[in-house]
Structures are given as C-alpha cells and as structure tokens.
Amino acid sequence: MPRAAGGMGPGAPAAAAAAVEVPGTVLESLPNALYRVQLETEARPQVVAHVSGAAALRRILPGEAVVVELLAYDPGRGRIVRRRF
Amino acid sequence: MHQACRIVVETLDALADAAAPGVPTRELDRIARERIEREGARPAFLGYRGYPATLCISINEEVVHGIPGERRLKDGDVVGLDLGCVVDGFYGDAARTVAVGHVSDEARRLMRVTEESLRAGIAACHPGKRVGDIGHAVQTHAEGAGYSVVREFVGHGIGTSLHEEPQVPNYGPPGRRQRLVPGMCLAIEPMVNVGGPAVRVLKDGWTAVTVDGSLSAHFELSVAVTEEGPWILSEPYPYGGGRETHA
Hints:
- The structure holds two protein chains of two kinds.
- By secondary structure, chain A is mainly β.
- Chain A has one domain: CATH 2.40.50.140.
- Chain A contains no helices and six strands.
- In chain A, strands 2-3-4-6-5 form a five-stranded mixed beta barrel.
- The radius of gyration of chain A is 14 Å and the shape is globular.
- Chain B has a single domain, classed as Creatine Amidinohydrolase.
- Chain B contains four helices and 15 strands.
- In chain B, strands 8-7-9-14-15 form a five-stranded antiparallel β-sheet. In chain B, strands 1, 2, 4 and 5 form a four-stranded antiparallel β-sheet that branches.
- Chain B starts with a helix and ends in a 15-residue tail after the last strand.
C-alpha cells in the first residue's frame, strides 16, 4: 500500500486527523508555554502540551485538571483545550 | 518480515487465480482475509487509518487504494491487488496487477513495463546507493516506454509499522535522498499510467484514479538492503549462507 507523498506523515491522503480528547492533570510548567500533563489513559501516560487560545486566557498552574486534545501525528504531544472543574 | 512477505505473495498468487469475470471484489477480499488469518497472520491494511478492508483492489483507471465491494470483475479488466499482513509485529507489503480474461495489448504492455520498472528499482538497492537512485531507475524505465509515473503516492520504509521512513518516490534525480545501508527494508511500488501522471482521490477518501481516465498498473515488493545487494523478502535469501532465519 503506497503512502501519500509529502510531509504530512505516513498514510492515506484524506485520512482525517481525528482528534481525541482525554482528561489529564498538569504536572509542571515548561518553557515556551508548554506543560507536561499526566493523562488518565494507559496508552500514553504523559504528553507535552501547548495551550489552545481560549484556554490560555488564564495562566495554567501545575495540579490543574485539564482536557488535552491528541492527534495521531505525534504521540508525545498534545494541546490543552480547556480546564476541567 | 520474510514470513509476512511470503504469506502476502502466496495470497496474491491465490487471488490472481481467483480473479475471473463475474467475481465480486468483496469475494477476493474475503479470500485474502481468510488466507492471512489461516496462516496465523493479521491483515495490515484493515483499520489502517480507517481503511475498511484487507485488500486494495484498483480496477483499470483506478491507481491504488480501491476498496473492495459489490463491483464484479469483467472480461478485459486490469486489476491491481495490493495486500499486507503482520506476523509477530513485522509487516509485509506487496502488490501486483493482473489481467481478467482477455485484455488489450496496451494493457499487457503496461503491466509488463510496470513490473520491469519495479525490478529496475530493486536492482538499485545496493549499499552506498541512495533512495533517489531507486526512483530514478523506475522513472527511467517507465518513461522510456512512453508511460508516466504517479507522483502523489510513494513507496516507503517497512518494518514494525506499515509505513516507515524513508519515502521512496518512483521519480526524481539519482544520487539524492538517503544513502542505502544494509538492514534497511523498503516497499518499492511503481504506479504507472498509460496517460499523464496526474491522479485524484475519489469521494470515498481512498480510491485514487487517473485524472485522464487512462489505464494504471501497480507492482510492489518489500525488499531488504543487504551487504550483497537487494533481498526480495518474499523469496529465500538469494546470496547463500543460511541467512533466511535472520528475518
């Protein structure tokens, strides 16, 4: 099975990059507005996440409960989309 | 990988025999899946990025990634069969294009040239050469026969996933891209069109067809680069020394 040419990673041309949202807890704040997040899933226990526009309106602190969006492209990365209360 | 590739190629042999006028493409998919599972392997494409079947069946102007369904093969069809399986976590991937019943001379020539292009690409798989040399060999042969090679889809590294680095285009200048080193495993897969190289993907999100509607053929083998040269992984190790057990 040929892969699609180009820089979008391996795979089919129009395979939708479906985002998965999983709950997690912020462990620590990293440089460049990145955060290490402990996820409540077994497959990928920790990711480094950046923050979506809306979620960045207030500073995120370690220990905060958040929802992280994951894409298939990079298993170690995520995006904090909102807080959990 | 040797096992996985052997199962894929043997299954393709069986599918080539089963591809007759009137056979629904879904039936070939069923044969492929049963055969792979009987061998204790797992279909590699099923569920890959949401792909819904074991086999890709691409008829006539379809280039690759055709999804099996109710469509029946008919006399004169040129049918691309692309299949992959997983054994103990290692992938095998191969494809070939077969004629159903009586096909045109043009179709026969296209299939022959495409397979020869694959062989030319494999022949370039020696340590010290580069990935670009493979594509150059494929392109030179295919375009030398007056055909064109598809750009939007490329071969790929293969191993513990179906698609690994590097990308292996079927075109481009020689002497470029990664240097080949022993141990690299590559799925080399020329897709050759009678008309222009342009393709587009249908609304199903998978099936790629030639824009000009011309016939297209596709051959693929998984190959390891060894110290001695290319090893087609579905075949016994060709250079002696009992290395078969190492893959």
